[in-house]
Design the sequence.
């Protein structure tokens, strides 16, 4: 069935938990290529190198009725007094929904930067950036 | 439902200043005791005739150039007046370190002090505070004070707009846009027949036009825009005499942002003022409560023919 996807179809799950009040997410994948061109070649040639995945997401700073605040949870990955350990990874799942079908990209990542603030006439929100580590664990696009 | 026409509205202005105190020095040559006029260094537009100002010495000495009259004030600094509006004056023959006066500012920046608003607008000889010659420099501070409201004269029309900003909080997966209420702002405009002299006890619109040029202390004023003024009635529809003195009004501080005067042959000169509200905007009401006949236990006496309750008879004359 023909379908365009919009923000209405978007979801963000962190550690298996669907985040509330997410305003946007984006994911960038890149591949480093290594040149293998040699003398006498007429065209440049490459071989695949290392893949990299990174992205960003925006969450409104919002307390739900159960006092759950996903933005604050994400912020605490960086704003913490004990420093960041190698085990402080998160399971990110970036999802587009089509009925009962989920189109997921899933990766293990470190949250690398967080920004939040308050402005007159605006809702406070948190912007987070994450850096994938290792291979994607799911890519059902 | 009553049907109300625009003539039940009114505009009441309260002169004020958002800014602080102006400090200066009065030299002996600044005081003209013969004409009861003095001056000090202030930028043009700082004072407008009719302003209520508090003049104090900053070195703790007395205001020697001001006559002997001492105005009585409350602890809050408000002038004590009679029911007729006249300022109460002490008969003690001594000078004070401060005082509150209405000012008249002439074309060359000379200042005359008055004990009432009406005379200060005209610069008349009545109500004029006598000044005395001085022999020393007197450091003073001058502050424009808030003052009781006066109706704005000859208002043709006014319009108040209030708006509330909303912030988009739509999140992923939402099917409909969601908005969150944010800041309230207000603005408006009024149009009045131009005059520069007082009309009875009313403020001329020329004052608002002067306000926008008042660079040193801002163009702020407080206003009450009446939806229904006292002693007015609905033109038709349901209305009872007990409502005659009900009053409803918007009240807020505002800053004049634009003033214009329109001239056209054979038409009345109109002063048009635009303003924006600063701070909270209140819609207030002063209505006469309905007086019901109650039982001993405080419950209402209900009528048999309807669900209404029995009211006390009142004098319905306005």
Sequence:
């Amino acid at each position: 069935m023909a379908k365009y996807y919009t923000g209405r179809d978007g979801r963000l799950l962190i550690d298996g938990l669907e985040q509330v009040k997410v305003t946007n997410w984006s994911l960038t994948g890149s591949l480093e290529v290594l040149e293998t061109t040699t003398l006498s070649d007429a065209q440049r040639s490459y071989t695949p190198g290392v893949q990299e995945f990174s992205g960003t997401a925006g969450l409104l700073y919002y307390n739900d009725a159960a006092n759950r605040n996903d933005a604050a949870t994400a912020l605490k990955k960086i704003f913490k007094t004990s420093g960041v350990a190698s085990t402080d990874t998160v399971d990110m799942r970036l999802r587009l929904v089509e009925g009962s079908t989920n189109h997921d990209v899933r990766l293990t990542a470190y949250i690398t930067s967080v920004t939040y603030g308050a402005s007159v006439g605006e809702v406070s929100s948190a912007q987070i950036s994450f850096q994938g580590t290792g291979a994607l664990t799911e890519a059902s696009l | 439902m009553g049907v109300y026409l625009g003539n039940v509205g009114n505009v009441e202005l309260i002169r004020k200043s958002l800014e602080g105190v102006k400090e200066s020095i009065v030299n002996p040559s600044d005081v003209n005791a013969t004409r009861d006029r003095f001056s000090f260094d202030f930028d043009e537009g700082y004072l407008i005739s009719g302003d209520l100002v508090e003049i104090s010495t900053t070195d703790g000495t007395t205001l020697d150039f001001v006559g002997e009259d001492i105005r009585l004030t409350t602890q809050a600094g408000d002038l004590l007046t009679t029911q007729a509006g006249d300022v109460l004056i002490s008969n003690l023959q001594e000078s004070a370190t401060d005082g509150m006066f209405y000012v008249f500012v002439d074309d060359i920046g000379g200042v005359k002090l008055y004990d009432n608003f009406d005379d200060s607008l005209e610069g008349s000889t009545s109500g004029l505070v006598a000044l005395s010659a001085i022999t020393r420099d007197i450091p003073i501070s001058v502050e424009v004070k808030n003052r009781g409201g006066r109706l704005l004269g000859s208002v043709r029309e006014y319009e108040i707009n209030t708006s509330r900003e909303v912030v988009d909080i739509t999140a992923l997966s939402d099917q409909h846009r969601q908005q969150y209420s944010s800041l309230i702002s207000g603005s408006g405009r009024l149009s009045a027949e131009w005059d520069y002299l007082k009309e009875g006890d009313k403020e001329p619109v020329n004052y608002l036009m002067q306000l926008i040029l008042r660079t040193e202390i801002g163009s702020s004023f407080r206003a009450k825009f009446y939806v229904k003024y006292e002693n007015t009635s609905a033109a038709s529809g349901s209305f009872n005499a007990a409502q005659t003195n009900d009053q409803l009004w918007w009240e807020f501080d505002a800053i004049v942002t634009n003033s214009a005067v329109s001239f056209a042959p054979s038409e009345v000169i109109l002063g048009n003022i635009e303003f924006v509200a600063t701070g909270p905007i209140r819609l207030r009401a002063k209505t006469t409560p309905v007086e019901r006949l109650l039982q001993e236990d405080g419950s209402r006496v209900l009528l048999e023919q309807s669900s209404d309750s029995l009211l006390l008879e009142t004098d319905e004359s306005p």
